[in-house]
Amino acid sequence: TFSSYVSARRLDHIRRELLSPTCRPQPISTLAYRWGFEDLSTFNRAFKSKFGCTPTQYRHRSNF
Question: Nearest to residue 20, comparing CAs of 50, 59, 64?
Fold first, then answer.
């Protein structure tokens, strides 16, 4: 569906920003709100469903 497509694109943008050196100091909630997620629990579930880990785990895993 269109809403699934939009959500997937938003998640992809957030994933890239989690790895970006300029966005690293920003809280994950800021990134989620910036890309249109209004509820953090919904965002966290969607991120984990798409990428297999939470945004925090993804950010920490990418530090290595």
Answer: 59
